[in-house]
Design a protein that fits this description.
Shape: globular
Strand content: 15-25%
Number of helices: 9
Helix content: 25-40%
Largest sheet: 7 strands, parallel
Number of strands: 7
Structural class: alpha/beta
Strand order of the largest sheet: 1-2-3-4-5-6-7
Radius of gyration: 17 Å
Order of helices and strands: HEHHEHEHEHEHEHEH
Distance between the termini: 33 Å
Length: about 230
């Protein structure tokens, strides 16, 4: 249903979080392991999801949380993947970076909460392994985000420092009356991609409900983003 909604809105792409080997991602004593294990999709299910998204006219982006899922994307998945993403929590995970270096399209590096040393490490690691198609995804990782904490000026600093395309992942409170405006404001800073969480049911309490906008809000954000881009 989310894929269909994204397609109906004529969004460019949709991103999925992949996790195959939970023990590569969580310490054994983590209290959430048993719950999350029940949520994990199989390789076949992901293949069907990716195919449906592609057939719906959406580019697929895969955020891989573990090495096994990234290796599956690299070697087994038949659907064309527009980009993979390494979450900011994995920015110095050399095992993930090693697998990411073998991907044959864009590698997005999540940099929310990262130091410039962390970012430099990931970029250098990938470039030293001949992965040049890199993209930085900036965002303030707080749910929900107070936009006064974001500091959009940092986008210009990131662009000038690393000389790479930069995107922005917004996590502003969907009930904030300025949500749509804040979401598209970074376009004026020259971002290449805007990422938003969205939901079909704003009353449902989900993991990302603190930052997931409604379909109506998503439509408005897309409309405003197109206006700002043309201007």
């Amino acid at each position: 249903e989310l894929i269909k909604a994204a397609s109906d809105l004529k969004l460019d792409s949709i991103k999925f979080h992949l996790l195959f080997d939970i023990h590569d991602y969580f310490v054994e004593s983590h209290s959430a392991i048993k719950v999350i294990e029940e949520w994990i999709f199989s390789e076949q299910q992901w293949a069907e999801i990716f195919q449906y998204a592609t057939e719906s006219g959406l580019d697929v982006i895969a955020m891989c949380n573990d090495v096994k899922s990234l290796e599956w994307v690299n070697t087994i998945c038949k659907t064309p993947i527009k980009a993979i993403e390494i979450h900011a929590t994995g920015i110095n995970d050399v095992f993930l970076l090693e697998a990411a270096a073998k991907f044959n399209n864009t590698v997005i590096i999540g940099i929310g909460g990262s130091s410039f040393e962390d970012i430099n490490f990931a970029i250098d690691y990938l470039k030293n392994r001949n992965q040049e198609d890199l993209f930085l995804m900036f965002g303030f990782q707080n749910y929900p985000t107070n936009y006064a904490d974001i500091n959009f000026e940092k986008i210009n600093l990131i662009k000038s420092t690393f000389n790479l395309p930069v995107g922005y992942a917004d996590h502003t409170d969907p009930s904030d009356p300025n949500n749509e405006f804040i979401s598209i404001a970074p376009i004026l800073k020259g971002i290449n991609v805007l990422e938003k969480h969205f939901t079909l049911n704003v009353t449902e309490k989900r993991i990302d409900s603190q930052s997931a906008v409604s379909i109506e809000q998503m439509s408005k954000i897309k409309e405003l983003s197109e206006i700002v881009t043309l201007a």
